[in-house]
Predict the structure.
Amino acid sequence: MGELQLIEQIRRASHPSQNKAITLGIGDDCAILRPPPNSEVLVTTDITLENRHFRRNLHPPESVGHRCLARGLSDLAAMGATPIAAFLSLALPGSILAEKSGQAWITGFFKGLHILGELHRVPLAGGDTSESPANLILADIVLLGTAPKGKALRRSGARPGDALYVTGQLGGAAAELSALLARRRRIVRIATIDGHPHLFPEPRMDTGEALLRRDLATACLDVSDGLSTDLAHLCRASGVSAEIEQAALPIHPLARKLGPHRALKAALHGGEDYELLFAAPAKLRMPGSIAGVPVTRIGRFIPKRSGRPMMTLIAPDGNHSPLEPGGWEHFSTRAKTRR
Ligand code: ADP
Ligand code: MG
């Protein structure tokens, strides 16, 4: 398979009509997009690099394609944006294009990417393709979304007194990854993408859009590096401190299986859950679920004071301890593969 054939395969699988903001998709020198009136365009890019973000002998190609798109989508969700189009720059080792197993890998990768894209009506509208001189796959994705002018949810809007919420459950992705690493063998077939928080995370698009539309959040971001690390970003951007009630943390059932100590660690520091972490006025009546995703109040924001920790964990017995950002190094330091 050559580059032209590959691009033709990509073009055939992409359905630009899925999103009416796309005037022209793959095939010309540029794509043409038309954002709705009174909107702003939001742009995010994410690198997916073999042996850093995935391993060919561990992750099925459908998972690599899914995760590549999910990471960008989750950034849009975190700002309440509506996705319009994705652009993908791919560097592939020559051996991938030459061998049958390599072509199957590419087909699987695009299958994973397109299934998630169809779900959220965000087609590929362009990209670039190159042979990789190293024997490594690189996929760089750019996502564009729109939000009503001036309304995108930022990290900087949390105020002392606001409550802290998280969507879904935490620690599932880290728990599934450690189970995969313990097996040391690739899952070849997956019956369903449900229930695989590491392999097939679900970006919270509808929830993010609803938070914006219904004015439910003062600040928001997605949990990509781990609750402790991402909450620190939110605190710093907003100039506030935060307290987390340990007993309130919604811990994923896969993490619970690890036992209480490791479960707590996965929920606090395990990244890649792609849930939304957001602030809202304490008096606001928050629904128990938004767009079908449960929402849990896990703490509060307090004024920032020098000498006081930026983040505090309150144990079930009431004991306060400082919480340090501890985004978890998923893989051993020897084989440094991480998101
Ligand atoms: P050019 O040389 O003008 O950049 P290309 O041959 O690289 O054109 O690309 C032709 C068309 O195919 C363009 O519309 C481009 O956006 C699209 N394209 C190329 N590679 C990819 C890819 N990996 N994913 C999606 N679209 C791609
Ligand atoms: Mg090009």
